[in-house]
């Protein structure tokens, strides 16, 4: 049995807590490794080592730090196949999807190569007689990231890339379900020239999370996961005086107007709803066709596309559309929600519950399911399913459809498919959701913009990646400077007005 490690001070370090978690191959339902779960003492020791290493890294000029990011990009491209294979074996994603996971993280690292520009302050000369004022962006010190299972490459890079480029030391607590890729990323950063101790990967569960939240040295925490845990981390972290950004659950609506290209909309829904087995916070899980005629046309287009989806292990080739769910518990939860939809009166048009793959009977596979005539009081509408399930909610008018997206407690992403520019502009302006797609089903911003949801999908005032990330991982110091030509007599006991 393979035993994984932590990564501390540039070395793979065995756990000392005596506690482990099993790491599964979700296609087979078999344990393939075990990962150590850190104690509070182990976490605190990693933080202390990071704090000792950070001042020198923070004092390194931004251009040299950016060169480490540049070399990291080269190494990520070199090892893309190896990273994708490890990711797929633990998560279950197809190889193309796993490569996309790495690629979207890599793009944020590319953006971080521009850190010297992003870290520039402001300057005003002659703000007063002989007085200059300037601001500096300085690293916070030691910061941390707590990242989820569904993007084990992308989200760690979204967090640690800007933090490291800004001069911080970073503590990464990845998901214990698929921890191998984060450990591989740490090795690549060391190879790229990152000094020892600046990136520590500490595997763990709630004990490690609480240790991060309570450690006084850690100045900021970034989190991605479910909303209940996001609320917990945000509340406890803020109460401990830390800067915290947390991104939680989602229920992303796609509105289909009567004038939409129905083939384009159906293709978009199938990819956005079932890709990665629906285990994406930006998955479209609710289709909202406007008008019964639009709904009937949409369902007619969707059914044959869904029934043709190829479900299987990543080893079955690149034409597999999606793989298994990550754990047996995840599979049981999704099946339970599908059953609740049937019990509450939704029409199950395509039923994936009895999917069985020969040779992989113990794997965590679920076939694709499609519901029609879902209503907002149903659990399948209220909850984030995080599985290959698409719900159709019929709306009579555009205003009713807009209301579904606006009234839901989650506000991560949304989309509208239409040929009408006025409708699209109105939707983008009014909808209270953080990321909006117009004829784009999964509106994940590119690395030089920022990613973040509204309402119960996001907690904190700054988003992930893009310029916001550098604001989050730095603080501004403003200096007022005067170099008098000669000594003045006596002191001044009041604020002098500027001439």
From TrEMBL:
Segments forming domain Aldehyde dehydrogenase: 15-479
Keywords: NAD, Oxidoreductase
Gene Ontology BP terms: L-valine catabolic process; thymine catabolic process
Keyword tRNA-binding set for record: no
Source species of the chain: Rhodovulum marinum
Signal peptide range in chain numbering: none
Molecular function per GO: methylmalonate-semialdehyde dehydrogenase (acylating, NAD) activity
EC numbers for this chain: 1.2.1.27
Cross-referenced InterPro entries: Ald_DH/histidinol_DH, Ald_DH_C, Ald_DH_CS_CYS, Ald_DH_N, Aldehyde_DH_dom, MeMal-semiAld_DH
Pfam families given in the database record: Aldedh (PF00171)
Entry-linked NCBIfam families: MMSDH
Protein name: methylmalonate-semialdehyde dehydrogenase (CoA acylating)
Gene3D superfamilies according to UniProt: Aldehyde Dehydrogenase, Chain A, domain 1, Aldehyde Dehydrogenase, Chain A, domain 2
Broad class of enzyme this protein falls into: oxidoreductase
